[in-house]
Every structure is written in structure tokens, then in C-alpha cells.
Write a structure and sequence with these properties.
about 325 residues, alpha/beta, 9-stranded mixed sheet, 13 helices, about 45% helix, receptor, DctP_fam, transport, TRAP_DctP, TRAP_DctP_sf
């Protein structure tokens, strides 16, 4: 037995050397396991982390151990800006990131992160599965070299505060934390608030210390980050139907064989579908849970909020043209 194993290794080594001589990469050899880093800013309690872990195991299994993936949650490899840069610097191989952050590198991909861009979840879902998204993803890949694989539903973003927000006027001069991408400022600015960019992992403290008076996020994120402990009201403005994009670094993608690219794509798309299902379910259950915790969940009429925002869709902060905008609006009509 021992001899056979030994002979097998020598053969494998000889085979690799021959391949190398023939100009074929070592990646084909049995023992060259590649280690990849998958980074995100979300808590380990979030579906995003759990499905990233699942995807890591699944990819390792389906590629017969050619790739092992370590998942780095909760901003452990840096803020969202950092991990986006990491894709290009080669310090991370895969990330989840908001459309708005991806929009830094290629404007049109940000359109999905604009406020009141989607009529509802069904409109978002139709976009996620559309040729239009594929086309925009290809544009992003041309611009950056990195490869968007799938859209994960992140949830409807709502304003949390210590005083109720019933109409846009209630947001006048409100110091509200937003993520550090310009598109997140579109809605608060339309409402006359003062949007303040702060990294995700610093928001709890900023609210607790009164650096800001409000923030906005979907219900599952509010629970995961325990923002309800430092905010009295969750106002259901639903101003962004938000997504995370799973993106793979171009350098890494180009090293994968076509078969492996297909495996990565399939697994990460399946993980995205599972994230989406889990977030939808959490959204359906959480309003009641927050009420039990003593947080007031405030149903608002979204119409006036939508009306003040829509004029900004083709304003100065729009990094897409009117044709793209009209095509997105037409989806699912």
C-alpha cells in the first residue's frame, strides 16, 4: 500500500513536471490546492455568511478539492471600500458588495441601488434574472476586469430613528448615517436630511453616542447589528430595494478552467437564490419580533417619499443614461 502511494506521488510529480515543460499550469496537478478568500462586512448570524460558507464547502467538493475558500465576515478584511479595492489588488478573491459600491467603478451597475428604482420585490427579481443585468455585468467586467456573478436580495431599506418619520418633512435636517457610496445619499438629500457616511461596523456606536440620530437598513440587518437597541422607531419607508452582488476578482477568474468557472457560477448563483429566500422570509417575520422587543414599527405611506425622490433618478447623481433607465422601468411591466 505504502509503495503504491509513494509511486502515485512520484507519478503525479513527474506528470506535473511534464505538463510544466509543455507549458501547462500546475493547477491541473492533484495536490496544488488553491486557497481563496471570500470577504464581506456582514455578521456571522446573517444568511449571507451562512450561504458563503455553504458555497465554500460546495465549491471545494465539486472541484475535488482543487479550491478551498475561507470566508472572512464582519469587516474582518476591511470596510466595503477596502474589500472592493482588494479585488483589484489581489488581496481578496470574492466579495459581496452593494450595487452602489460597485457603481464607483462602473456607474450603470449602481442603478439597482438607487432609491425607489424598483416598484416592488417582483420588479427587483425580474431585473436580477434579466438580460439587462447580464449586459450591465458585462460592462462592469470590461471596465474593471472583475466578474459579477449573481444578485443577492439584501432587503428593503427603512429609516430608523428616535422620533417617528411619517412624511418627508420629518426628515428635515435629520443626521442620518448612510454607507459611503453617493447613491445612498440620494433619498436623504431629497428629503432634506443630512446624510453622514460611516462604515457599517461603526454605526451602532455612532447611534449610541449621538454622532448621528438615524440610520437606514433592511430589517434583517437592523436585527443582526442590534440597531433597535439604540433606536426607538423603524419607519417602513422601503426606499431602496437593495442587493448585494457576488463578485469574483478577474485575476482569479482567468486562472480557472472553463469547467471550474461553471462550477463557481452555479454554486454562487444557488447561494444567491438561498440568500434571497432567507431574507424575504426574515422580512416577513421581523416586524412582529421588533414590536416584541419594544421598538415601534411605523407603517408609512410611501407615496410622498417616492414622489420627492423620482426626479433625482435622471439627475446629476445618475451614472446611467435615460435609455438604460427606461429599459429597467419596463422590466416586468
Amino acid at each position: 500500500m505504502h509503495n503504491n502511494t509513494h509511486r502515485h506521488h512520484s507519478l503525479a510529480r513527474w506528470f506535473s513536471v511534464s505538463l510544466l515543460a509543455a507549458g501547462v499550469g500546475l493547477a491541473s496537478s492533484a495536490y496544488a490546492q488553491e486557497n481563496l478568500r471570500f470577504a464581506h462586512v456582514y455578521e456571522t448570524s446573517e444568511p449571507f455568511h451562512q450561504w458563503a460558507e455553504w458555497a465554500a464547502d460546495e465549491i471545494e467538493e465539486r472541484t475535488d478539492g482543487r479550491y478551498s475558500i475561507s470566508v472572512h465576515p464582519a469587516s474582518s478584511l476591511g470596510s466595503e471600500e477596502d474589500i472592493n479595492e482588494g479585488l483589484t489588488l489581489g488581496t481578496v478573491d470574492m466579495i459581496y458588495t452593494g450595487s452602489q459600491f460597485a457603481g464607483h467603478s462602473y456607474g450603470p451597475i449602481g442603478i439597482a441601488g438607487a432609491p425607489y428604482m424598483f416598484r416592488d420585490f417582483d420588479h427587483w427579481q425580474a431585473y436580477a434574472e434579466s438580460d439587462l443585468f447580464q449586459e450591465i455585468a458585462a460592462g462592469y467586467q470590461d471596465a474593471t476586469g472583475n466578474v459579477p456573478i449573481a444578485l443577492n436580495y439584501y432587503g428593503e431599506r427603512h429609516v430608523t430613528s428616535n422620533n417617528p418619520v411619517n412624511v418627508p418633512e420629518d426628515m428635515e435636517n435629520l443626521r442620518i448615517r448612510v454607507p459611503g457610496a453617493p447613491l445612498y445619499m440620494m433619498f436623504p438629500r431629497a428629503a432634506g436630511a443630512n446624510p453622514t457616511p460611516i462604515a457599517f461596523d461603526e454605526v451602532y456606536l455612532a447611534l449610541q453616542q449621538g454622532v448621528v440620530d438615524a440610520q437606514e437598513n433592511p430589517l434583517p440587518a437592523i436585527r443582526a447589528m442590534a440597531f433597535h437597541e439604540v433606536q426607538d422607531y423603524i419607519n417602513l419607508t422601503g426606499h431602496v430595494t437593495d442587493s448585494l452582488i457576488t463578485i469574483i476578482s478577474g485575476t482569479r477568474w482567468n486562472q480557472l478552467s472553463e469547467e471550474d468557472q461553471e462550477i463557481f457560477r452555479e454554486v454562487l448563483m444557488e447561494a444567491a437564490e438561498n440568500n434571497t429566500a432567507d431574507i424575504l422570509q426574515a422580512e416577513a417575520e421581523l416586524a412582529e419580533w421588533f414590536e416584541e422587543q419594544g421598538t415601534t414599527v411605523n407603517e408609512v405611506d410611501r407615496t410622498p417619499f417616492r414622489e420627492i425622490t423620482v426626479p433625482y433618478h435622471l439627475g446629476d447623481d445618475a451614472n446611467w443614461d435615460e435609455e438604460l433607465y427606461e429599459r429597467l422601468q419596463a422590466i416586468g411591466q
